[in-house]
Amino acid sequence: MKRLTLSLVSALALAAATPALAQSINIGHLADYSGGTSDVGQPYGQGIQDTIAWINANGGVNGKKINSDFNEYGYQVPRALAAFKKWVGSDKVVAIQGWGTADTEALVGMVTKEEIPYYSGSYSASLTDPKGKVNAKSERAAPFNFFYGPSYSDAARAMVQWAADDWKKKGKTGKPKWVHMGANHPYPNSPKEAAAEYAKELGFEVLDPITFALTPGDYTPQCLTLKQSGANYAYLGNTAGSNISVLKACKTAGVDVQFLGNVWGMDENAMKAAGEAANGVVFPVRTAVTWSGSAPGLATAKEISKMSDASGAAYRPVHYLAAMCTALYMKEAMEWADKNGGVTGVKIRDGMYQKKDWVPKGMDGVCNPSTWTTSDHRPTTRVDLYRSVVSGPTDASVSDLVKSGTIKLEKVATIDLPRKTELQGW
Predict the structure, then answer these.
(1) Of 71, 82, 97, 221, which is the most buried if we count CB atoms within 10 A?
(2) pLDDT higher than 90, residue 90
């Protein structure tokens, strides 16, 4: 009788546990903490991880826990493909937080077939056309791909516009010279054509691209080529790690050029690492405020940050904030899906279309208003540009450098690009 009672208790306990397990929502999380883009991949990935943990600690998705399978793939496409195979096999995920351009683009067809919303750290314009063939240059339908912030191409166009205005403001005459710098890789190449065409349209002379690898190295030869070219504006297409090497080498070589960075090409950590060589770099920031700024939503951000820093002392760079926004948009799309048929990939995708000028709850003044539609996955065509300011030695911690004002980010412009269909998808 005693054994029977114990068996019955065990059975009842198992039955009670089963509904709880059924209430979890499986997602995949792809991150680069060790590869060629780990310098910016780590703070972004940590932002995703912390936000998921905070969501689960604060009621989940209408009471359902997000079960996130973290995969550190070292920025290697084959490893990303293997992770995806696992996620659509035994794990049965309903959404993925992704990362790089090469792997995100490689997965578009499979993501579409499996109907899994894919929130990437890649902002390639090729991911913004959900229908396909919206114009002559848009060759890819990406109905399940989403990202937060302006596309690489729109951000580059905004920097071209800023450069044209800067040239005139300085009273310069003649044609300014524009040059693209970066690895021969899908990520830095993504906005190259868009920027070059817009630069020509605005009267720039577009020079031959200068190639340098995604990894740190000695890029003195590239800096000497840049100096000899007479370029006035140089777009750095790589992430901060290798850009730091270029900035230092070009400072040593006495290169006089206005550097413009890809969204991943500069941040507070890179400013510390590059020191005064980073002074003056202009680059896009996706959020409406930085960690040291003032906005109602920063209170929520600081609580999320405590998921991996209980002390609350850590300074979070701009990429961490952008990751928070990305994860919270997914969470709210899941909440809509849960109330409108269930948390499936298709319903999560549909949840992304339910709001206009959307800011996640509790993130006012942090996440910029964004809108996704069934025909246009460009969340915004407004680009906020900031200049990195480094005014002294950067031996201290980033937090202390920011507090002392030795490093700071100054907003220089907000560029509103027209939402032209002919510019979508490239």
Answers:
(1) 97
(2) no
